[in-house]
Amino acid sequence: MLILNHIDSNVKDYFSAWIDFNLPEVIMYENTAGLIEPVMVRQHFLFYSTADMLCFCHFHQNLLKTPGHNIFTAIGLNPCINFLLQLKSQFPKAKIVTVFDNDLLGKVLDCKVVLAYLGQQASFKLLKSQLSFSYKGNEFTVPESFLSLHRFRMLTGIRSNHRTLKPKGAVSFSQLLAQQYLV
Predict the structure, then answer these.
(1) For residues 182 and 20, what is the distance between their CA atoms, to the nearest angstrom?
(2) Domain of life here (predicted)?
(3) Per-residue pLDDT tens for 34-76?
(4) Domain coverage including residue 176
(5) 32 occurs within a structural domain
(6) pTM of the model
(7) CA distance 18 to 32
(8) CATH number of the domain within which 77 lies
(9) Residue pair 5/51 in contact by the 8 Å Cβ criterion
């Protein structure tokens, strides 16, 4: 991935204990990066992919200053609920921060992660720019562009302390990084 060539070397150094950067086509890891002791964890950042995680950390290097306090996990586009519940039990005191793209898929995944951490589910359907979702037997419909985790919580009455971080001026942090290097 060409974009990873532009990741700050301090970020690569920090993650070198968890990620092998010698295989530039395949940047993967199997564990949660940044973990030293589970009891030290204050914030748990969730991403689609390792590349997204690295691009985000390129812009937020202050999160890497206190090793062990912030941990980072790539969960994929369709994470298993059992996997999310395992993360919850492994780091019960960590505040969850989802860092998904600023598009419909990312916003739906924000909602699904919150639900999974609460041991609940909802189904989502998109039809003619209207997003419908079913939660606890109730049907809700919002314009696609209006969905956010905040709006989802307001409509459903769910209470959680999960946070989301979205890039400003781009759909993803990798796009933001790419824009930085365009001439």
Answers:
(1) 27
(2) Bacteria
(3) 888 888 899 999 999 888 999 999 999 999 999 889 999 999 8
(4) 2-119+159-180
(5) yes
(6) 0.89
(7) 8
(8) 3.40.1360
(9) no
